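As agreed, record passed on underneath.
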Amino acid sequence: MRRLRIAAGLAALVMLSAGAMAWAAQKTEGKGQKADVTERERAPDGVRVRVQVLNGTKTRGLARRATLLLRDRGFDVVETGTVKSTRDTTIVLDLSGHPDWAQRVARALGTARVETRVDSSRYLDIAVVIGSSWRPPTQPLHP
């Protein structure tokens, strides 16, 4: 009788741990998919997309972090800076009439609003103003 109770207890423990592992794997899989979507978003092959990144927050270094992220994705960040007015939402401005490029930049950053403001007098294709809601991804130290 005692062996039967021990065997039943062990079987319950195995079932409980298997369920916990399946639940944890499902939670991890959901998080990984979101990271994979932004990880896969890159600049189009064979095209030089010139981007300007501006920090629209009071947090120092966000334009630099966004620049590193976009350069890792193949975008050519040619200018960085800061704007005096602060904003909550990140905005991606399509300056060259290529909405696909602007959408790619927005998806690479995670979440951003895209607007078209064609300006043929500028040498830029895309301008990004980082808002305070943007969170840079965790990444290894770039010395």
